[in-house]
């Protein structure tokens, strides 16, 4: 199934139409997009047999962040070997973890106001937690995942890297610096949840035509989704609706010697999930 947020209301998407969850369930599940994850097993049971006859066409520009109010947002740094290679950094032995503050979350197709000329992109698989978990075994980790989505970890590199200690979370949390969507997709919709092509295409000022700046695959994660979920849960209690940005493959702007400019358009795509499109001003 594909769960989305349409103008602040939780919906199921199918064949270009949206089914309002609260109305279709006769109030069994609330309109709040977070609520479906708080009783995930019951919701999944209902949604698997949902009647889509009341679904209606919708405008994709009205899609908001699929989970706009998670309790926790985790982001994993340096989690693809090719990205570590391009940064000339050793592969990490343990998760590198920071956060993106909730106010940076946005829908999939927002316009991003650039606070400086040092803003970079990072295309990422996003994991949405479906069940509370503490000290989760790696072999049980997928049981705690509601679904997968696609996000961008936009980064103001000067703020991120300024000393005396790096400010990753601040540099990555300007408004609309964490767009994601277009939906949360359950893994039964995917041919291989462990191997999804992930890419980004940049257009506009400073670019000739359409430039594929990132093109990777999630099978190349240093820490897999189950490993991330398990390792995080050894310290924190994961909560339903929590988000995990899992890292970016090679091809970020710094590696190309470019930063985002007003008038650029970036289209990010994750196999089986869909695309998000951001313009910059």
Automatic annotation (TrEMBL):
Q: Which UniProt keywords apply?
A: Hydrolase, Metal-binding
State a single Gene Ontology molecular function.
metal ion binding
Q: Which GO terms describe its biological process?
A: small molecule metabolic process
Matches recorded under InterPro entries: FAH, Fumarylacetoacetase-like_C, Fumarylacetoacetase_C_sf
**Domain of life (superkingdom):** Bacteria
For the Fumarylacetoacetase-like C-terminal domain, which residue ranges apply? 73-280
Family annotation (Pfam families): FAA_hydrolase
Family per record: Belongs to the FAH family.
Protein name per Swiss-Prot or TrEMBL? Fumarylacetoacetate hydrolase
Native organism is Pseudarthrobacter psychrotolerans
Lineage start: Bacteria, Bacillati, Actinomycetota, Actinomycetes, Micrococcales
